[in-house]
Amino acid sequence: MKRKVLRMKTLYGQLNEILKKFIIERFGENRWETIAKLKDIKETFIAEDKYDDTISKNIIEAATKELDLQRDPFLEMCGAFMFQYLRRYGYEELIRNLANNVLEFLQNLDFVQSYLKEDYQDFVMPHFRCDDDSVSDRMILHYFSYRPGYQRIVMGRDVIASPTFQY
Question: What is the pTM of this model?
């Protein structure tokens, strides 16, 4: 039996906003402007507004070309930046209260998605689950999303998140 997969065409602008901020902070405003011109991107992104998902994909495609980076490492850097960005802009307390260690952080990611769902009600959130036999120094995280191709962002976020919980 073939499984039907729902494809989301319009998504909230948080990813686009973070991609843009990452490129500007890491590589400079000039590089962002070149990337935006490559794909005719004129928007100023607002996290709570909806955008076609092809914009995110176009930003990633143009950025990897312009910055001469492979897609996977670029997305991992974006994931690391996303975690740092969220900490800087009001989510530090939530992250700290979420867990005492990285395993608890990963096990509680669905809680964060539920929290964000209040602000982004139409968004189909990804789901996260750790295997039952995961322990603090060995764990397997399962990531389920209707948006294919973004798992490297999750990997980058989780790698940068780990030291946060080492006291």
Answer: 0.82
